[in-house]
Every structure is written in C-alpha cells, then in structure tokens.
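Bench notes, afternoon.
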Amino acid sequence: QVQLVESGGGLVQAGGSLRLSCAASGRTFSSYAMGWFRQAPGKEREFVAGMHQSGGTYYGDSVKGRFTISRDNAKNTVYLQMNGLKPEDTAAYYCAATSSVIRIASMFTTKSYEYWGQGTQVTVSS
C-alpha cells in the first residue's frame, strides 16, 4: 500500500508561483510512474503533468511552459513547480502513482493510477 500526501497549495495572485510537493511511502518509489491531476468545481479531473518510470515528463496543453514536474527519489517526493499562475489554474490538485509500467498514452488518464493523495487546494486570484 502506498500513501501519498500533498502539500504546498494556497492562495496566490495571478502571475505568481507555487511549488506543490507529494510525499510517498514505500520502498520502491523510484519505480512508480507519478502524475499530477487537478479538478475544479463542476469539472472533470484533468491531467496536469506526469513522470514515467523511464524518466520522461509529460504535460497538459494548458500548463506547458509554465509547470515543471520533478522528483527526488531519495526523499520519496515528487514536485510540481507552477509559474505564471492564472485564475483558470484554480483547482484541487491531486498526486497519483502507479507501480505498473504503463504506456505513455496511459499517463494522461486517471484510471491508470492506483494510488491517490487527498488533494491540495490552489486558488489564483486575478
């Protein structure tokens, strides 16, 4: 069983930055594919960023060039650096993980991930 705990959310003005962290339990963290998703009220959960077991990184179209996913395997932590925040980035952000070696195309869908954090709220004011 893997537990994921997000932190780092908060209220920020448009144009500002935040860094989200996701701390994971488990001894084989480095072998997990990791993802960040977000969900705004009344909307479906959407893919934000992901890091495959191969090390490749992937981003949703709306955050490319502004957000960066990274991981520190020594700390069992994955990060989401968010720059140039916009009001439309307001959402609950969720960390997700899977121990399965998944296809790249599967990185973008929620059903590919076995483990989820409780979420952290990001609010961007205009």
